[in-house]
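Fig. S4 source data, part A: sequence.
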Amino acid sequence: MEARARWRPHLLTPPPPPPPLLLLPLLLLCGECSPVGGCNETRMLELLPWCGEAFANMMHKVEVWKRCNLSEFITYYESFTNCTESKAKVVGCYWPNHLAQGFVTDVHRRFFHNCTVDRPHWEDPPDEILIPLIVAPILLTLAMTGLVVWHSKRTDRLL
């Protein structure tokens, strides 16, 4: 008897969808996976306040007069930054973006509004000092270039 390949219609049909019990672990592992469609700004605006509340709770541990010293709360601020970044990625948004930037700015206004940066106001030195400091390197460069050219021409004559 000759073995013939039989037509099997069940091999051409797609497999059945996975049972709902298998989907549950996938959803739990995924958490809030980013949507394929792009940035969900509405969802991001819902999630960012959670980061702000967590940061506020941590900042209450820092005394008000120490809030301008970054070393006192740098770990809290890093957690806040990581939180905003992760929430942006969860909803499929880039980070930083205009929404996250506005939210971070509001947090800065709330906690660091009294922090001023006292930087010295730098001014150019007087012209009597500035002009020699500019001209001296230029003249030195020209003199060294001329010396190299003169020396290379002199060596050619000796050989």
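Fig. S4 source data, part B ends here. The helical segments are 20-30, 41-59, 70-90, 98-111, 127-158.
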